[in-house]
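Q: I'm building a small set of examples for a reading group on sequence design. Run inverse folding on the following structure and report the sequence directly after it, with nothing in between.
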């Protein structure tokens, strides 16, 4: 168990915290959730059609898996890579579960201020066009794009998460960037 020193827990590596979770240390779980809860919510939100309720549900499901099955973590691997692998697999399962007609992005929310704020309008238009471009990629290319450019993971980490060679990840990123750039041509300065 960790000493009840909050600083010790906060400075512990993710892998050390997972060892604490194996011993059912609640503080280790809380520290992992503090580090990754919001990040995983944002990932699910981006990958699951910007559905806040679904993102919340999937975040809870992911962390429940950590509590219920901490022994599945291989300490020789990076915790972050392993966590994103679990999250990516949850998304894949959701894509398989949905019918093709259900895979559309919801319309972007608008508020009265956007009519009066051109910068916000431009930002909303850009985000809408980016979502449309990502939606047109197909799930494997979208996953690579989101993991690299929105979650800031390395090519090596993405390769480990998707269980494919780094060259394949680079190729998928190149394809995704070309397609997205082509659809965002309007926003070039």
């Amino acid at each position: 168990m960790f000493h009840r020193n909050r600083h010790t827990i906060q400075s512990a590596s993710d892998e050390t915290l997972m060892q604490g979770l194996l011993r059912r240390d609640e503080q280790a779980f809380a520290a992992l959730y503090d580090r990754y809860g919001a990040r995983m919510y944002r990932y699910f939100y981006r990958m699951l059609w910007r559905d806040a309720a679904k993102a919340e549900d999937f975040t809870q499901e992911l962390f429940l898996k950590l509590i219920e099955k901490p022994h599945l973590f291989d300490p020789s691997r990076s915790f972050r890579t392993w966590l994103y692998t679990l999250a990516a697999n949850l998304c894949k399962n959701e894509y398989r579960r949905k019918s093709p007609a259900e895979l559309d992005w919801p319309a972007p929310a608008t508020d009265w201020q956007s009519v009066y704020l051109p910068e916000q309008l431009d930002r909303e238009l850009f985000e809408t066009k980016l979502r449309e471009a990502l939606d047109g990629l197909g799930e494997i290319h979208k996953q690579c794009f989101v993991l690299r450019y929105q979650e800031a993971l390395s090519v090596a980490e993405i390769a480990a998460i998707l269980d494919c060679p780094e060259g394949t990840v680079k190729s998928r990123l190149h394809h995704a960037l070309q397609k997205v750039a082509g659809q965002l041509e309007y926003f070039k300065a």
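The first helix runs from residue 6 to 11.
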